[in-house]
Amino acid sequence: MNSPNVPPSGREADSAAAPRHAGATTGKAVVPVGGPDGPVVGMVGAGQLARMTQQAAIALGIDLRVLANSRDESAAKVIVDTRLGDYRDLADLQEFAKGCDAVTFDHEHVPTEHIRALLGEGFAVHPGADALVHAQDKAVMRERLTAIGVPCPAWAHVSGVADVEAFAQEHGWPVVLKAVRGGYDGRGVWVCASADEAREPLESGVALLAEAFVPFERELAVLVARSPHGQGVSYPVVETVQKDGICVEVIAPAPGLGEEDAAAAQHIALKIAQELGVTGLLAVEMFSTESGLVVNELAMRPHNSGHWTIEGARTSQFEQHLRAVLNLPLGSPSLTAPVVVMVNLLGGSDPNIFSRYEHVMAHDPGIKIHFYGKDVRPGRKIGHVTALGTDLAEVRARAWHAADCLKGPADV
């Protein structure tokens, strides 16, 4: 049930306070840094998530530093304090972390042992290794979520066709095979209708697990934030629309979702954040089924399902993540309009996007456009648009019109 002290557009939960640790390490002492310009947050990775985090950092007076592979990356193009290095190299990570009040990530690919090493040297890293491993390793995630009573698909480790056939005999075909580590936007996932279809991924040399196929009605996502103090907030539950394994649309709040069902989804996400010790943002992707909610995936960073919050929430997910990793009081997650729709912009065959700005802006002055500074390639996420309003059908139509116009003419 919804708490009487929480507005229906957002949910908050507090647990026992933890001592604040926001400083960089010199020897054994924790030395506050930042000065009059504010604290320094180091974000490992320089993609669009870091780029959009910079917008929030500017308003908060936070100095954002990013670790990029090259100057051509999305965030490296707009962030002055860009350091070049390899996130897989511990020495590069150690050098990058010096002088940071908090270190965080715009992806989950930093080796777990490197994060443990940084924590052991006294750096404030959020989320920590013990939490982030659940977003890095799907088998670890499934084991832990199952142990704490979170609803998940039936699953098992598999290493050969015989294992998959035994799993299918118990749970039926199709069987979903997933890479234990890596994979996103549909990559590293195979829906197999037979043992023959399972052979190719099984022979790829990638560690896999099998999951029962979930006949879902729609996909939902819950974005929550948790600080080292233990304060937690939840954004409204959203519906995500997928095409070819890629999220193409997010609708906030999820249309037609009852108050009790929304509260149940938020409670699941907040429980996961607390049980796993997440600090920063946590995105929980769920299936809505006839028999209830089933957790699909986790991400511990700003997430595509939360891009709508830049205009659509009182506190954007990017500001919220910065607040959380610095152990600051968390902001309001409530909506700024009754309906918010975000549509991802996927590259088309014509890269001359700016030539189409005039039509989109003149047609709908309320549309908000975000580009990620990426080269245009067919099917690549290059930005998103957001529309706000009161009528769902009208807001969706506006968002899709803008996205289709910006993409340009259909590929021939």
TrEMBL record:
<dbReference type="InterPro" id="IPR005875">
    <property type="entry name" value="PurK"/>
</dbReference>
<dbReference type="InterPro" id="IPR003135">
    <property type="entry name" value="ATP-grasp_carboxylate-amine"/>
</dbReference>
<dbReference type="InterPro" id="IPR013815">
    <property type="entry name" value="ATP_grasp_subdomain_1"/>
</dbReference>
<dbReference type="GO" id="GO:0006189">
    <property type="term" value="P:'de novo' IMP biosynthetic process"/>
</dbReference>
<feature type="domain" description="ATP-grasp">
    <location>
        <begin position="142"/>
        <end position="326"/>
    </location>
</feature>
<keyword id="KW-0436">Ligase</keyword>
<comment type="subunit">
    <text>Homodimer.</text>
</comment>
<dbReference type="InterPro" id="IPR054350">
    <property type="entry name" value="PurT/PurK_preATP-grasp"/>
</dbReference>
<feature type="binding site">
    <location>
        <begin position="296"/>
        <end position="297"/>
    </location>
    <ligand>
        <name>ATP</name>
    </ligand>
</feature>
<feature type="region of interest" description="Disordered">
    <location>
        <begin position="1"/>
        <end position="34"/>
    </location>
</feature>
<feature type="binding site">
    <location>
        <begin position="211"/>
        <end position="214"/>
    </location>
    <ligand>
        <name>ATP</name>
    </ligand>
</feature>
<comment type="function">
    <text>Catalyzes the ATP-dependent conversion of 5-aminoimidazole ribonucleotide (AIR) and HCO(3)(-) to N5-carboxyaminoimidazole ribonucleotide (N5-CAIR).</text>
</comment>
<dbReference type="InterPro" id="IPR011761">
    <property type="entry name" value="ATP-grasp"/>
</dbReference>
<comment type="function">
    <text>Catalyzes the ATP-dependent conversion of 5-aminoimidazole ribonucleotide (AIR) and HCO(3)- to N5-carboxyaminoimidazole ribonucleotide (N5-CAIR).</text>
</comment>
<dbReference type="GO" id="GO:0005524">
    <property type="term" value="F:ATP binding"/>
</dbReference>
<keyword id="KW-0067">ATP-binding</keyword>
<dbReference type="GO" id="GO:0004638">
    <property type="term" value="F:phosphoribosylaminoimidazole carboxylase activity"/>
</dbReference>
<feature type="binding site">
    <location>
        <position position="138"/>
    </location>
    <ligand>
        <name>ATP</name>
    </ligand>
</feature>
<keyword id="KW-0658">Purine biosynthesis</keyword>
<dbReference type="InterPro" id="IPR016185">
    <property type="entry name" value="PreATP-grasp_dom_sf"/>
</dbReference>
<protein>
    <recommendedName>
        <fullName>N5-carboxyaminoimidazole ribonucleotide synthase</fullName>
        <ecNumber>6.3.4.18</ecNumber>
    </recommendedName>
</protein>
<feature type="binding site">
    <location>
        <position position="178"/>
    </location>
    <ligand>
        <name>ATP</name>
    </ligand>
</feature>
<comment type="pathway">
    <text>Purine metabolism; IMP biosynthesis via de novo pathway; 5-amino-1-(5-phospho-D-ribosyl)imidazole-4-carboxylate from 5-amino-1-(5-phospho-D-ribosyl)imidazole (N5-CAIR route): step 1/2.</text>
</comment>
<dbReference type="GO" id="GO:0005829">
    <property type="term" value="C:cytosol"/>
</dbReference>
<dbReference type="Pfam" id="PF22660">
    <property type="entry name" value="RS_preATP-grasp-like"/>
</dbReference>
<dbReference type="Pfam" id="PF17769">
    <property type="entry name" value="PurK_C"/>
</dbReference>
<feature type="binding site">
    <location>
        <position position="219"/>
    </location>
    <ligand>
        <name>ATP</name>
    </ligand>
</feature>
<dbReference type="InterPro" id="IPR040686">
    <property type="entry name" value="PurK_C"/>
</dbReference>
<dbReference type="GO" id="GO:0034028">
    <property type="term" value="F:5-(carboxyamino)imidazole ribonucleotide synthase activity"/>
</dbReference>
<dbReference type="Pfam" id="PF02222">
    <property type="entry name" value="ATP-grasp"/>
</dbReference>
<dbReference type="GO" id="GO:0046872">
    <property type="term" value="F:metal ion binding"/>
</dbReference>
<comment type="similarity">
    <text>Belongs to the PurK/PurT family.</text>
</comment>
<dbReference type="InterPro" id="IPR011054">
    <property type="entry name" value="Rudment_hybrid_motif"/>
</dbReference>
<keyword id="KW-0547">Nucleotide-binding</keyword>
